[in-house]
Amino acid sequence: MAVGPVERRKDDGTRVDLAGDVTGGGAPAAARDEPPSTGSATAEPAPLNAAEDRLLDLLRRIGTVGALLMAAGSLGAGAAPVYNPLPSVPVLGLFARIPTAAMACAFTGMFLVILAWLYLGRLVRPGRPRLVSRSQMDRTLVMWTVPLFAVPPMFSRDVYSYLAQSDIAAKGLDPYLLGPAQALGVDHPLTRGVPNIWRDTPAPYGPLFLSIGRALTQVTGDHVVSGVLLQRVVELVGLAMVVWALPRLARRFGVQPVSALWLGAANPLVLFHVVVGAHNDTLAIGLMLTGLELALRRLPAVLPGEPVPPRQPGEITGVVLGAVGISAGAMVKIPAVLALGFLVVIVARRWGGRAADLGRAILLVGAVSLAMIVLICVGSRLGFGWLTTLGTPGKIRSWLSPATGVGFLGATLALLFDLGNHTDRLITLSRVVGTAAGGLISLRLLWQTFRGRMVPMIGLGAGLGAMLVLGPVVQPWYLLWAVIVLATAAGTSRFRTWAAGVSAVVAVLVPPTGTAFDGRAYVLPQAYLAAALVVLTVLFALRGRLPSVGTVLRELRVSAPRT
């Protein structure tokens, strides 16, 4: 058995909730839109029919064309390095000379990828009698990913910070004390690519990630292009771990694996900010999910009202492997550490759900995690300096952060009422309150999980979402921490509809260059408008081959009933 939703299956396959709304959707069992015969992860759905196969082939082509357009647009609208070799290359250098057209090309590709992904969601919707197969989903993901591998970074310049911080570590200096400008010099090729705001700041990432980057630097030196490509390989390894663990966890928690892969791995935010943007979040998430899967495959579920089953061989080994994997993820990016708390309550419930069981679980998971963290810190020779730099991202004021927005609002009102300029103090106060609120929400979710009122993966996903959204800085790719984890256990169409809509909107909020276009505000509206006209033309041309938007909306309304 495996840790899963708090429910019991009858002999006919129907599901009976034992603790109310805990199976991931908010709707009573009788009102759920997934029929047990097809929506259950234990039942194999039928393959697509001929018409649906043709639709899938068309969607793959649309997404692939979109990825190719993004690749072309990145040549002139990407976050290119300062030492950019492309302008001197025949033909390819043309895009750098027409940045607005390149931007429109990139936006067109983004819209087409999002469009294909949303339509693909119809073919993986839980409850359908026929679903996309796992092999079809894997091939689709590969088709949309390959064109985006060997392109300039887009949407952010963070990867250049990774390169500079890795080079600092490779030179035997402390990346947790020195910024790129201090350690490498302002004229160093790697420093030149780092945004000005980060040139004097130390690294906020864990020693495991910097150790990997240090090893890559031994190969690439200060060559920016090859460094970016190898950093992208690292993130694709993280994505591979997500693709491995995600469907396995989904099956344990009663969610169709291909539906979880569609939402968690084929998500445009993954394609844009992991594959193209080369952010290290996917490596941390992949290690975290892998650790959870290694732990849960050896731990049987304990449902309310049932006796605790006898101990199974390998349970302790599973807990140890899980804690090691999660701790490794935390040594890339610290939010993964929250999964250790949920691993503790899973183990405590397995051992009986008493306070003493909770204490023993804390001792076991805590000891293994502490040993792993110390091993990484000491073995990497980077030490524990990362503890002092966790607040580095807070140096920027993200307009997507609700906590920062509240601080700005309060400061604006103070100025309107002639109370003085208290912007810095109010932003600091609102961020402290937001961080505290996120922590309290996570603690409550941990308690609910311990008491058997919350599915562990739903609690973890919601907790990560609360801590990151209420934190001092919010970036579009931060959403992946919540979406990927929730995709493993929240399988109802109501959640999928909201998650897909939010992902699609957030995916286009940041322009491909990752800049604000100060003084050239007209560029973005022109690019958005041009891309929208092209996509509308494509939809008109395919009007007989794609389902209408009205049909899609009607399906969503039917599959996501009010509760």
TrEMBL record:
Q: Which InterPro entries match?
A: MptA/B-like
| Glycosyltransferase keyword on record | yes
Broad class of the protein's primary localization: membrane
Single GO MF descriptor: glycosyltransferase activity
Entry's localization field: Membrane
Q: How does the protein associate with the membrane? A: Multi-pass membrane protein
Q: Provide ranges: composition bias, Basic and acidic residues.
A: 1-15
Q: Write out the transmembrane intervals.
A: 62-83, 95-120, 258-279, 316-349, 361-387, 399-417, 429-447, 459-486, 498-517, 523-542
Disordered: region residues: 1-46
Query: Which UniProt keyword terms apply here?
Result: Glycosyltransferase, Membrane, Transferase, Transmembrane, Transmembrane helix
Tell me its family. Belongs to the MptA/B family.
Q: Know the name of this protein?
A: Membrane protein
The species is Gandjariella thermophila
Q: What is the lineage of its organism?
A: Bacteria, Bacillati, Actinomycetota, Actinomycetes, Pseudonocardiales
